[in-house]
Design a protein that fits this description.
The chain has 15 helices and 12 strands. It has about 300 residues and is an alpha/beta fold. It has 3 domains: about 100 residues, Rossmann fold (3-Layer(aba) Sandwich); about 100 residues, NadA-like (Rossmann fold); about 80 residues, 3-Layer(aba) Sandwich (Rossmann fold), CATH 3.40.50. α11 links the parallel β9 and β10. The structure holds 1,3-dihydroxyacetonephosphate.
Length: about 300
C-alpha cells in the first residue's frame, strides 16, 4: 500500500472518530490498516471497549451484527453488506423454535456464527475458542447446539455427561475446502511441520491434527511454540498474520481454503465507508435487547483457548 494512502486512512479515522476492526481472514491490506485484528471472540470483546463513535467492521455479517448488539449507541458500518456467512444462514428462527419445542428442557447454545434474530432466541452464545468451556458451564444436561455440526462434534469429544444435539450446519470453507488428503499431502511435502486446524473442520481432519484452535488460538500457539513449521487448516489469509508476526517461521495453508465472503471487503470499499460513514448496519431495538443477553453471558464466562 502506498504511504500516502496509509496516511489518508489514519487522518480519516481521526477526523471521523472511527475505529477499524478486522477478522483474521481479511485481505492483507485490510489487516494492515485495522486498529484491531482478531478472532470472533476477541472482536466481540474489543467491540465492548472501543471509545470511537464509529466502528468500521471488516468481517462477515454476523460479526458486524455482534458489534452493533454490544454497542447499540454506536454507528456500526459494514463496508460490504453482501459479505455474509453461509453457516449463519443455515439456521432460522422458525425451525429453531420447532426444535426447541421438541426439546423443552434443553438449553440452546448458539455459535456466534448465527443471525441476531437467532441469537435473540438462544440461551447463550459461544465461539470456537470457548465452546467447550461454555457448554461445560451450563447446568442443563441437554443442549441444542447450533449451527456448526463439526464444532459440535469436536465439543462432544470433551463433554460426555451431556446430551448435545447437533444441527446440520457446516462452514463450506472448513468442511469442503479443507480435506484430509490436502493436509496429508502438505505433511508429505513438509514432514517437520505441525498440523494445526480449526474446529469447524471435519472430524477426519481433526483426527490428524496436533492441535485444534480458533484463529487467535493459532496466533498465540505458533508464536509460543519452539517448532518452526506449521500446516494451517483454516482460511488461508490467517497465514498473512502468522507470517507477519513470526517472520522466521514457515506456514503452509491449504490452497483451496478461501472464504469468498471475507474477500468481498476491499480497501476501496473501506475507504468509501470511512469517507461517507456508510453503509450503516441497523437492527430492531427488541432484537438488540434480546440478542445482547446470550452474548454478554458468553463474554462473562470468557476465553477458552
Ligand atoms: P474464529 O472465531 O476462530 O476466528 O472463527 C471465525 C469463523 O467464522 C470461522 O469460520
Amino acid at each position: 500500500m502506498k504511504t500516502n494512502q496509509k496516511k489518508e486512512i489514519q487522518e480519516l479515522k481521526k477526523e471521523k472518530d472511527a475505529v477499524i476492526l478486522a477478522h483474521n481472514y481479511q485481505l492483507p491490506e485490510i489487516q494492515d490498516i485495522a486498529d484491531y485484528v482478531g478472532d470472533s471472540l476477541y472482536l466481540a470483546q474489543i467491540a465492548t471497549k472501543v471509545s470511537s463513535k464509529h466502528i468500521i467492521f471488516c468481517g462477515v455479517n454476523f460479526m458486524v451484527e455482534t458489534a452493533k448488539i454490544l454497542n447499540p449507541e454506536k454507528t456500526v458500518i459494514h463496508p460490504s453488506t453482501d459479505a455474509i456467512c453461509p453457516l449463519a444462514e443455515m439456521v432460522d428462527v422458525e425451525s429453531l423454535k420447532w426444535f426447541q419445542e421438541d426439546h423443552p428442557d434443553a438449553a440452546t447454545v448458539s455459535y456466534v456464527n448465527t443471525t441476531a434474530e437467532v441469537k435473540a432466541v438462544s440461551d447463550i452464545c459461544c465461539t470456537s475458542s470457548n465452546a467447550v468451556k461454555i457448554i461445560k458451564n451450563i447446568k442443563e444436561k441437554e443442549i441444542i447446539f447450533i449451527p456448526d455440526r463439526n464444532l459440535g462434534l469436536y465439543v462432544k469429544r470433551f463433554i460426555k455427561d451431556k446430551n448435545i444435539i447437533l444441527w446440520p450446519g457446516i462452514c463450506p470453507t472448513h468442511h469442503s475446502r479443507i480435506k484430509r488428503e490436502d493436509i496429508l499431502k502438505l505433511k508429505e511435502e513438509h514432514p517437520k511441520a505441525e498440523i494445526i486446524v480449526h474446529p469447524e473442520c471435519q472430524p477426519e481432519v481433526i483426527d490428524i491434527a496436533y492441535q485444534v484452535f480458533s484463529t487467535n488460538g493459532m496466533v498465540r500457539y505458533v508464536s509460543q511454540s519452539k517448532k518452526n513449521e506449521f500446516i494451517i487448516g483454516t482460511e488461508k489469509e490467517l497465514c498473512y498474520r502468522l507470517r507477519k508476526e513470526n517472520p522466521e517461521k514457515k506456514f503452509y495453508p491449504v490452497a483451496t481454503a478461501i472464504c469468498p465472503n471475507m474477500k468481498k471487503i476491499t480497501l476501496d470499499k473501506v475507504m468509501k465507508s470511512l469517507k461517507n460513514l456508510e453503509p450503516i448496519l441497523n437492527l430492531p431495538s427488541d432484537i438488540i435487547e434480546k440478542a445482547r443477553r446470550p452474548l454478554i453471558k458468553m463474554i462473562e464466562i470468557g476465553r477458552g483457548d
